[in-house]
Specification:
Layout (H helix, E strand, L loop, with lengths): L6 H24 L5 H42 L4
Helix pairs in contact: 1-2
Length: 81
């Protein structure tokens, strides 16, 4: 059975993405190649990650909204009495 993605799963996925970006930054920093270009690249990647996270959260919230709206419309469409 397919289950909906929970908020916890989304959080863990985003955390894993963040850790992978942070790992890349740490490796670059400690390799001695700490140039401004690399720092800007890391900051840009983190900003993209934040944008992706915001979009994913909006998609989840919209999906929840649509499911509730569908349930309410089903209740309105059928008479229980």
């Amino acid at each position: 059975m397919v289950q909906a993605i929970s908020n916890e799963q989304t959080f863990v996925t985003n955390l894993e993405l963040f850790v992978s970006k942070a790992d890349k930054f740490i490796k670059t920093y400690y390799s001695g190649i700490n140039q401004e270009k690399h720092v800007r690249e890391i900051v840009r990647e983190l900003q993209n990650l934040v944008s992706d996270t915001d979009l994913q959260q909006l998609e989840i919230e919209y999906q929840n909204y649509r499911e509730r709206a569908d349930l309410f419309s089903d209740c309105d469409d059928t008479s229980w009495f």
